[in-house]
Amino acid sequence: MSSPLVDPRQFPDATDLAAAIRSGARSAATVVEEHVERIERFDDRLNAATTVFGETAWEEAEAQAQRGGPLAGVPISVKETYGLKGEPVTAGSMRAPTYVPSADAVAVRRLKQAGAVVLARGNLPEFAMTHETVNLRFGRTNNPLAPDRIPGGSSGGDAALVASGGAAFGMGSDLGGSIRYPAHCCGIVGFKPASGSVDPDGTWPPRDADAPELFADTMMSLGPLTRSVRDARLVYDVVADEPISDSPVDTPRILTADDFDVEIRDEEIQGARAGARHTLEEAGATIEPVDELPDAGRVYEDFLKVIIRDYLRFFWKGLQTDDGNGLSVPAELFRQATGRPSVHWHFFRLLLGMQVTRPSNQEATSSQSRLIRDRRSVRDQLGDDGLLLLPTNGALAMKHGRAASYMARPGVRRLFTPTIFMNAMNLPAITVPVWAHRDRATGLVPGVQLACAPGAEDLLFRTAERLETALRTTATVTEERVTDLS
Questions:
Q1: Can you give the CATH number for the domain in which 233 is found?
Q2: What is the pTM for the complete model shown?
C-alpha cells in the first residue's frame, strides 16, 4: 500500500481563497506561490501538470486581484485540451499534429474575466480517450491519495492537482465520466453539466463551424473539478452560457434504482450509497424507488455504437502526422512489440477494439433513436424536483493498468455504467466524496453521484451540499498537521 501524500480537506477551497484575496487578508501573489510550491513538492510522485506557468501566473495574480470578481486571484488548472493563446495543444499525443490556438478557449476567457489565474495544465490520456491518465508525451499521473493507484481519466491530471493543493480547482471535459471518475478516484467533487451548457469553442478538438453537429457531441460536457460543492456551483455559474435558475423546490424526490445494472466490487461503494440515501432521507427528502429507468447495460451498448460511428473516423484521421502519414496497424503493432510505439498502447488497443466492433449505420441510427426516447423518459421521471442517486463507479481507484485493461474488454463494462448513463441521457451530474466510508487499507474515498434534469441544477447543488456536509465526518485538517510522506 502507498502512503497518502495529502488529505484534500486540508486546503481551503476557491470560494474561501477568493474571499480572502478580495478582503485583503491574503495576497494573490502569495496564494499563487503556495500553489506552485505544492506542485513542486509533489511533482516527483504525481506528475500531474504538463505545464506550470509559475512566473506569469505570479505576475497576473495581483492584477486579477485588483480587478476583483468571484474568482479574484485564484490559481487554477485547465486540462491540456483547453486552448490557451499561443500554447500548444497536443491532446497527449506524440503522433498527432500539434494545435496552437490564437486565442483562449471561451471557458478560459470567462474564468479569467472572473479573476482566475491559470497556473497549470493537467495531464490526460492520449486523445482524452481512456480512464487512465498516461501518454507517451507526458508520462503517467499518480493518485495523491494512493500513488500506486490511478487518478482516473481522462481529466486525471487536474483531479490530482486539485486533490494535492496544486490548483484551487481544475477544468476538465467529460464524455463517459472523465470529470466524475477522476474526482471519485481522488476524493474531490466533479460536476458534469448538460452538454451545450458551456461553450466548447477553443477546446480540442477544434470544431468546424460548417460541419453538422454529431449526436455524440450531445454527450460531451465541460465542467469543473473542485474541493467543494459550492466551488463547483461558483465555477459553473462563471463558465455557463446561462445563469443557474433558482428552484422553488426545497426537498427533492430521490430516485433510487436498486436494480441498476452496475458491478460493485468494493464494499465501500455500497456503504457510501446507503449512507447518502440515509442522509437525504433524514434531511426530509422523499426516497422513491424507481424500476422504470432504461436498462443501463443496453444504454451503454447504444452509447458505444453512437460514439464509434461519430468519432472513430476522426480518431484515425487525427493520428495522421504533419507529413501525411496515416497510422498503419501492422507497422504500429511491430513498433509496439519492439518498444518503439508512436501511439500509447491503451489508446491503440481501444482503437482496434472500436474498429472490430464498428456498427453498421442502421445499427447506430437505431441506437441514437433509442437514446433520444430514453432521454425523454428519464427527464419526465425526474421532473423539476427529482434527483437520481447512484454510485459514481463500482470500484475504488484501481492500480495502474487495470482500468485500461478492463475497458478494453468487449461488451458492457458494468463498473462504469453509472457515469456513462448520465452522458447518454445528457443529465447534469455531480459526484461527492463520502469520507465516512473511506477505505482504511488504501486511503481511497468512494464517491456518490446525483443527477437532475437540465434546468434543476440549483436543486442539485443544494442537495449535494447537504450530502457533502453530512458525509465529511472528520474536521478539516490544517496543512501543518499533514506530513509529507513522499
A1: 3.90.1300.10
A2: 0.96
